[in-house]
Amino acid sequence: MRLTVLGSGTNVHPKRAAAGYLVETDHVLLFDFGPRTLMNLIKAGADRHCLQHLFITHHHTDHFADFFTFFFDAVFHAKLVAPRPAFTIYGPRGTRRLFGSLLKAMPGFSSAPFRVTVTELTDRTIRLGQTRVTVRTVAHSPSLHCQGYRVEHDGASLAYSGDAEYCKGLVALCRGADVAVLDCSFPVQRPGEGHMHARDCGRVAREAGVQRLVLSHFYPVAERYDVKAQAGQEFGGRITMARDRMRITITRPSPATPRSR
Description:
By secondary structure, the protein is α/β, with parallel strands linked by helices. It is built from six helices and 15 strands.
């Protein structure tokens, strides 16, 4: 399994794209599609015209705004250049209504010459080929259904929080994961509602027993502090600061590899 971070920042971060994570197993999966992530997808060498699966964590536009540019391009490329495979959008409750309305309202979108499916997932597991994707509700916004995702393939596992506060659902999603990518929006000194600060991320990683913690979704204020050290006050395992276009290969751990406690 390979993870490519397409965006490690937030909506108008001056140096980072907003949320977006490309996961390659026997399928190519995209988790969130925030502003500026489409260009990073292209720069990373991924073929956007072969992308078939988009997973949305929640309906704040900083997590799916680049869908509009992507889909406009997909429609006209399929009409004028070459056909593309079917495309499925997965998301929390309300995704079918939201994207159904968007696909009807945006000029040209409803005439896509390929099949488009919108599937709502709530606290369950689906299988795509040899890949399992598990969905778990997390706490972020009281007015929205928000969820994180877990990907398992060939004995390796990756968990992604989306936007989330510390909650038991998130700990359960991350349980025993080889890599957990968590919402580290803020430093401990400047916490914010609806998101985790660095120590919260460390707490989730410790309680879930993950192997490697990847801090991401930084607001600019987070980078004025040593959030890696703050997370390390709670978690003794490997901690990485995400950056745009970072690639991480995730493999089945060997029997001799100890799990973080």
